[in-house]
Design a protein that fits this description.
Number of helices: 4
Order of helices and strands: HHHH
Mean pLDDT: 84
Oligomer: single chain
Shape: elongated
Radius of gyration: 28 Å
């Protein structure tokens, strides 16, 4: 479950960072066209911009780490959450019943194939 939390933190981090810095970029571009936009993109330029973006996102999000954690916990509750445990138990019970039905169907299929082989063997 912690891996799901890590994925959501990473996703939220990137979505929020992109929204903020894209807004800043559009405002700056509307006021004055940066000289970097007049050049074609090079591999080095893309790498530098990506690194700068990640550093800016990190600088932006460090003060809001607690809020980011709260956001993710609202999306996916902790194991200790009193509402999560009954839902988890209910889901596990339903999955268990589904697996039992699948196993019964598989056993019936194996039995039917065995009967078919027996019938075909008797015809020969």
């Amino acid at each position: 479950m912690l891996s799901v939390h890590a994925v959501l933190v990473h996703l939220s981090f990137n979505v929020i960072g992109t929204a903020v810095w894209l807004t800043v970029f559009c405002i700056v571009k509307a006021i004055a066209v940066p000289t970097i936009l007049k050049e074609s993109a090079s591999l080095m330029g893309i790498a530098v911009i990506h690194s700068v973006f990640n550093i800016l996102c990190t600088a932006l999000m460090i003060p809001f780490a607690g809020e980011l954690e709260k956001l993710v916990k609202k999306m996916i509750p902790d194991y200790e959450d009193k509402h999560y445990l009954p839902r988890k138990t209910n889901l596990e019970n339903r999955l268990s019943k589904t697996y039992d039905k699948i196993e019964e169907a598989e056993n019936a299929l194996v039995e039917a194939k065995s009967k078919k082989r027996t019938i075909l063997a008797e015809k020969i």
